Amino acid sequence: MTENRTRSKMPKVKKIPLRQCIACRELKQKKDMLRIVKNAEGAIFLDFSGKASGRGAYICDSQECIKKLRKQRLINKVFSCEVDDAVYAAIEEEYLGKK
Ligand SMILES: [Zn+2]
Description:
By secondary structure, the chain is of the alpha+beta class. It is built from 3 helices and 5 strands. The protein has one domain (15-98): YlxR-like (Hypothetical Cytosolic Protein, Chain: A). Residues 21, 23-24, 26, 59-60, 65 line the site of zinc ion.
């Protein structure tokens, strides 16, 4: 471990906004994540375009996190509402279908 890195030597990098995965709580760049959206009509879906309007939550682009999402019913917590298992099933299916 190098503890003596000086701040002045660090190159100036543009700040990359990080998002926290709702499943594993890791911070990652948006491009490595998927967006889950709850729109005004209350529909919850995976937003592959990243452009859907509504409340959004982020999750890693990994099967592990997608599975965890369903197992722990994480969308319920994130959007504080009851989410039908069919919604989770659809998200899982949609995710796996894209791979
Ligand atoms: Zn994750």
